[in-house]
TrEMBL record:
<dbReference type="Pfam" id="PF01230">
    <property type="entry name" value="HIT"/>
</dbReference>
<dbReference type="InterPro" id="IPR036265">
    <property type="entry name" value="HIT-like_sf"/>
</dbReference>
<protein>
    <submittedName>
        <fullName>Histidine triad nucleotide-binding protein</fullName>
    </submittedName>
</protein>
<feature type="domain" description="HIT">
    <location>
        <begin position="10"/>
        <end position="117"/>
    </location>
</feature>
<feature type="active site" description="Tele-AMP-histidine intermediate">
    <location>
        <position position="103"/>
    </location>
</feature>
<dbReference type="InterPro" id="IPR011146">
    <property type="entry name" value="HIT-like"/>
</dbReference>
<dbReference type="GO" id="GO:0003824">
    <property type="term" value="F:catalytic activity"/>
</dbReference>
<dbReference type="InterPro" id="IPR001310">
    <property type="entry name" value="Histidine_triad_HIT"/>
</dbReference>
<feature type="short sequence motif" description="Histidine triad motif">
    <location>
        <begin position="101"/>
        <end position="105"/>
    </location>
</feature>
Amino acid sequence: MAGEARSDCLFCKIAVGEVPATVVRETETTIAFRDINPQAPTHVLVIPKAHHPDAAALAAAEPQIAADVLREAQAVAAEEGAESYRIVFNTGAGAGQTVFHAHAHVLGGRGLQWPPG
């Protein structure tokens, strides 16, 4: 069921501390941690603690928590000193989503070209 932690979800396990991560921020509803394969000097993932398969599902089910994720993404960028940054939500395997738990990538610290890859 959406919202409930899933035992087969890597990000659910990170959210409850079962899998280690380099956490940079945590709130009641979100956790932010460094990406293990960074694509920029700043590459932090911000996830809701509640399980939702992607950003669209999160926004539909819990819009306030979706807003929390965005607010935390901005806070991460500010703490990292990234004046310019990108927030990316991949939705679906064809878009590059590999962990099916909603998450925002916060990327900064270098020039980011447009359009992306």
